[in-house]
Specification:
The protein is an all-alpha fold. The protein has one domain. It is elongated and about 70 Å long. The model has no long low-confidence stretch (mean pLDDT 80).
Length: 165
């Protein structure tokens, strides 16, 4: 079984191998992170690809960013967004077990309409707020990381050339 650190290294290696400008990769990843916050189960990747085409950013980075809410991480991420939404709206909410049961019901029945306004409104506000915070953080973090990685790579290439001389 793969470890989390190995999966993370693989994910970062995939991000590094994208043949595009650092700005395009960072913007695509940022859009993917924002789309991953949206509670539209099952169509996030399609939405991310559509937005990548519209904004002409890296499609691979956009998809990589959107899969952060996969079947393993979706419930904890959306529960955190739900709790954040409860703080924003000032409402009382349910616990994690009840939250999971309600989301499972929404997936098996008629989707988000099954959640009801008292449940969906805090979730929507929390997801929106999380997207507004995480998306710029992702953009500047990836841009900084790619620029730093490029400088390190150039220094290594220059050192290699110096050693040959």
């Amino acid at each position: 079984m793969r470890t989390i650190s190995r999966s993370l290294r693989y994910f970062l290696a995939r991000l590094l191998r994208i043949r595009d400008t650092p700005e395009s990769v960072a913007a695509g990843f940022s859009i993917g992170i924002a789309v991953g916050c949206i509670p539209f189960f099952g169509i996030q990747t399609a939405i991310a690809l559509f937005l990548a085409f519209v904004f002409r950013v890296s499609k691979v980075a956009c998809v990589l960013g959107s899969v952060w809410t996969n079947p393993v991480t979706a419930f904890p991420v959306y529960y955190a967004c739900y709790r954040l939404g409860l703080i924003i709206t000032g409402r009382d909410g349910v616990g994690f077990e009840q939250f999971s049961a309600v989301l499972n019901k929404a997936e098996t029945s008629n989707g988000l309409a099954a959640l009801g306004a008292s449940f969906f409104i805090p979730l929507a506000w929390g997801c929106l707020f999380a997207a507004l915070i995480l998306s710029p953080l992702a953009y500047y973090s990836v841009l900084w990381w790619l620029a730093r990685r490029g400088r390190v790579k150039k220094c290594a290439q220059a050192q290699s050339i110096r050693e040959r001389i």
